[in-house]
């Protein structure tokens, strides 16, 4: 519900569902437009870089440049960025690359209009979708490889927090990937 707050057309936003929970608001975006809005509103910004990598650097710069604590919606004192990254960690680089083909196939299906459940991994050499530029933000490999890629991504973006996204055909593979990540990233 939006309620007028004064003669200058300012508003407050309230939600009956979240009343009293003090859950912070975030702006999720993948472009400089969403970044600018988050900055002007003084809110944390969650960047959908794991599937929309084209404006990562510009979006983060715009967010930080436009950040203001003066807005009535401001919740934080300094800019805060959470960025998404596709992750697949396995015992070897080759195994992780093979498992990552499940995501490549999903993107190939989306682009062709085909809707299928997640597909089993295939040989990366012939896997569809892996060349999709939307999937270039990733940390895929053995633990040392994936951690290096995550560190490079954090260095590049200055992200305060990451959203890791792991698609796997076999839930046990996803669980193993997350376990390896947790053991080696921190």
Characteristic key phrases:
single chain; 186 residues; five-stranded parallel β-sheet; two-stranded antiparallel sheet; alpha/beta
Structural overview:
By secondary structure, the chain is of the alpha/beta class. It contains five helices and seven strands, in the order βββαβαβαβαβα. The strands form two sheets. Strands 3, 4, 5, 6 and 7 form a five-stranded parallel sheet that branches. Helix 1 runs parallel beside helix 2 (56-66). The protein starts with a strand and ends with a helix.
Question: Count of helices?
Answer: 5
Query: Would you tell me the structural class of the helices and strands?
Result: alpha/beta
Order of helices and strands: EEEHEHEHEHEH
Strand content: 15-25%
Oligomer description = single chain
Mean pLDDT: 90
Choose one word for the global shape: elongated
How large is the radius of gyration?
Answer: 19 Å
Q: Determine the N-to-C terminus distance.
A: 41 Å
Number of strands: 7
Main sheet? 5 strands, parallel
Percentage of residues in helical conformation: 25-40%
Which parts are unreliable, with pLDDT below 50 for 5 consecutive residues or more? 1-7
């Amino acid at each position: 519900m939006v309620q007028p707050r004064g003669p200058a057309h300012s508003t407050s936003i309230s939600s009956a569902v979240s009343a009293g929970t003090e859950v912070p608001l975030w702006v999720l975006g993948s472009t400089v437009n969403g970044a600018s809005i988050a900055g002007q509103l003084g809110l944390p910004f969650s960047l959908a870089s794991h599937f929309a990598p084209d404006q990562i650097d510009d979006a983060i710069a715009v967010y930080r440049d436009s950040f203001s604590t003066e807005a009535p919606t401001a919740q934080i004192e300094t800019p805060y960025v959470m960025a998404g990254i596709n992750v697949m960690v396995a015992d070897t680089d080759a195994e992780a690359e093979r498992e990552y083909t499940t995501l490549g196939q999903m993107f190939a299906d989306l682009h062709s209009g085909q809707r299928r459940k997640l597909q089993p991994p295939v040989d990366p050499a012939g896997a569809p979708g892996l060349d999709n530029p939307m999937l270039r933000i990733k940390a895929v490999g053995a633990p040392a490889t994936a951690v290096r890629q995550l560190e490079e991504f954090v260095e590049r973006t200055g992200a305060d927090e990451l959203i890791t996204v792991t698609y796997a055909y076999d839930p046990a593979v996803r669980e193993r990937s997350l376990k390896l990540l947790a053991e080696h990233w921190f």
